[in-house]
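<context>
A single protein, sequence plus fold
<sample>
Here is the protein in question:
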Amino acid sequence: MAFTPIQQAITNNCFNNLCLIVTDLDGTLTQGGKFTANLLQTFADLSSAKIPLMIVTGRSAGWVSGLVSYLPVLGAIAENGGIYYAAGEPEPVLLSSIPDLGVHRQQLAEVYQHLQSEFPQLQESTDNRFRLTDWTFNNHQLTITQLESLATLCKALGWGFTYSSVHCHIQAASQNKGTSLIKVLDNYFPQYSPEQLVTVGDSPNDASLFNRAVFPLSVGVANILDYANELTYQPAYVTQAAEAEGFFELAQLILSHLG
């Protein structure tokens, strides 16, 4: 499947009204699993150009509560849309409709146990103790067929399922990054419309950010090509470079165009 290179976005004047960058974390802002000096300089350059950033990640509430305190971002959505941390605010905001988090957590554990009875090789992720709205296990050597079977099992039990290059997620059926991003924009940043932002990602759990009917300007860093046939929605553009270097490529194009 052919993907449109990010340079074409300049030709199409896509960045003329850009007001906000919304980006995934792992595999999009990381290089080999780490933040780099190049990435932190890119954050500083975007801040100087008054282009704000927001993170939307599958990482746990515990991880994200710390990151949002250190990174120069407006806020961060954790657990694939389950919870929102606004920069400078002490308490997170629950985005997923969960009446009782304790009961919800027990239900998630029961679904995981059911999946593990079918797939004994599944290994719970080490950060589950820091999660509130989803349950994760490692995406390690699972085939596409196995991932599809896991999704089917979750759906039959009334739950949602998605995965990234790091984790597989059991979550509420309605929980995803795109829906939660719209909620955050509506409630906290009504000055930004979806047409004024670029969404960036690298994995199937970012697919809702690539829905062009909602987010017209979306970008996949080059490692998204590893999942080309597994995405519900395709990004509008793709960078040449992978991971954080792809994000850097996108940021430099934006800065050059707007500068």
Notes: The radius of gyration is 18 Å. Residues 7-95+175-258 form a domain with the Rossmann fold fold (CATH 3.40.50.1000). The CA atoms of residues 54 and 222 lie 20 Å apart.
